[in-house]
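Lecture 7 notes: from sequence to structure.

We start with a single chain of 608 residues. Read the sequence below before looking at the structure.
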Amino acid sequence: MNCDADTRQFIPTDTLLFQRPPKNQRGSHMTARPEFRVTFHFLKVCASSPSALSDSLRVCLSSRPGECMLRSPTQRPLLWRETERDSPMAGSEATVSPGVEARWRGRCRTPTAVLLVLCTCLLRCAGCTKPSNIVLILTDDQDVELGGMTPMKKARTLIGDSGATFSNAFTVTPLCCPSRSSILSGKYPHNHQVRNNSLSGNCSSPAWQREQETQAFPVYLHKLNYQTFYAGKYLNQYGKPQAGGVSHVPPGWDQWHALVGNSQYYNYSLSVNGKEEQHGDHYATDYLTDLIVNRSVEFLDHRRKNQPFFLMLSSPAPHSPWTPAPHYQDSFVSTKAPRDGSFNKPGGKDKHWLLRQPHSPMANSSIDFLDNAFRRRWQTLLSVDDLVEKVVLKLQELKELNNTYIFYTSDHGYHTGQFSLPIDKRQLYEFDIRVPLMVRGPGIKPNQTLQGPVLNIDLGPTFLDIAGVDVSRTTMDGQSFLPLMAPSLRNGTSRPYFLVEYTGEGHTDQDPACPLLGPGLSQCFPDCVCEDAFNNTYACVRTLSSVNLQYCEFADTESFVEVYNLTSDPHQLENILKKVDPSLLQSMNQRLIRLQSCTGAACRDTKH
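Now the structure, written as tokens:
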């Protein structure tokens, strides 16, 4: 029977007879074992299209003696029935998660003829099913609170309208390298120990490479035979001599096209599988966002067809220096940064001292600067929108679209004029910690807007869940959000609260451009308005269940605390610390203490 034929049934039902050791002697071959039967239901084993495989089942028989194995590679749980002689569990049913193996050790007593039939089915249908592919499109500094998704018309249609849009997606830290390290490792910053964008802050340092990269999600995917491809910005210090240079290729990647250093659009170097490749300022060959998509398409054309793939495409947009493609330089010419909410408002005395220092209202020069940055950010995103379209069309051409999960998100948010801070990230407020997140793929119904909170540390666990890895066996802090967007595939619950943490960064010396400010500050532009400082170090608990609340503590001499009710005050204009019931503050403080020291499964335990 040809797997390409439009057939819907291959083997209707078959029963295999196994022996299983008694519970007190599992693994022993010394005693008799009670027999039990497993009935396999084969429905739509061979089908004419990937979408028709949603109910497909496949049996894989281990070649090792004494082991029989049942495996479902599809994206729907495999239902099996066990009937054991003289067993109180007779007739019980259980669910095996996609890609997870269920093993019974012992001597298989299956008739040879049945084994031959099953193996024949395997050989004939080996090309019919494979684990789902995964694509992650990651932008740099793209907000969602200030309209950052407005330019992304194609992406919203091709991913959001075709799948799920998450309205409560967050980064666990609002800065590039720590956030990206959280995405790769699935861990909170206090566990991966990347504090800022510098080598001394552990960004792409030898310690990170030794202790965290070896446990990152690409390593797991590679072990599962995924073909892995990376292109674009990696970590801010990647490729620097002190970080191993361009010859360092992180484990788990088959194809590696990573930017050396921080975001650029022209005049940069890449590490191409460990070899330096220099680029100039010619649009057709050097514009980084376009190069990323062109090389990803080339990879898809030449990949091994019988293996799943994972692509991570990391554009520099809309990070500074905000260089748009030539054909988009005249877009959004009349667009200005939004003037509502907290725009050009003073931080006020109830906010941390860093928010009290900007001049409010802002100088006209600051407003002109941030409006120009806002326009150019949107212009750079138009090329990312084209990237999304090209990837989707290529997957469609290759007939892989229906078997591919496509994730679109950013490493953190951004602000332009909020609380009179001209431009940057790093702050605890919604505009800096909320990120866009859209996903399409098998089992995800179109046009969904999902409210459950999702963190960037959940991306890796979700990829592994799709691939069939038990996340509880990893060191990751995050959890899979596959149950939220595809409940027909998984059962699960969303977390009621989570942690956001940040380590402030400053200069030990005075900024010569701003001599009146003194040491300890950084990011002082324009007009000597500083966006960061050593004591801009904080940790927050954010709740999104019965109470939409944020509670933050600063590690400074004031032990400053900020509390916001985001239901009544979505722009976080009023710190309600002195108005809140002390028992609620105590409860939030205890949650914060627990989360700041959590690791692995303890970070997912939010019952308290």
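The radius of gyration is 26 Å. Keep this in mind for problem set 3.
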